[in-house]
What we know:
Elements: E1 6-14, H1 19-29, H2 31-34, E2 39-46, E3 52-59, H3 62-69, H4 72-81, E4 85-94, H5 108-114
Antiparallel strand pairs: 1-3, 1-4, 2-3
Keywords: Monooxygenase, Oxidoreductase
Organism: Amycolatopsis coloradensis
Protein name: Antibiotic biosynthesis monooxygenase family protein
Amino acid sequence: MTGDAFRVMLRMQINPGAEGDFERVWLEIGDSVTSHPANLGQWLSRSEDEGVYYIVSDWVSEALFREFETSDRHLEHRRKLHPFRSGGSMTTMRVVAYLPGTASTESHHDWERAR
Length: 115
């Protein structure tokens, strides 16, 4: 990943008891984001704080992310996740450097098996 990448971080507060359904739906519809030609990948992380999730999504440029953000594809994605949310926020940033760790050569599938 180069220093030109644009990163979006969403903090989502999920309604109590809806966490499992939220994770399932997020995985089911994730390709609506990751199949966009400008998307570099996205991650879903569950916080230690109850009901709090972080979604990190990397894009080749801010302009292409903003184009996606106003697309029908994104609006449909948000509509499907909205019932699970009780709040949230978005932060954007530019990736200025990336130092891969030794374990980064493993594929995501290998990482999943190791968990």
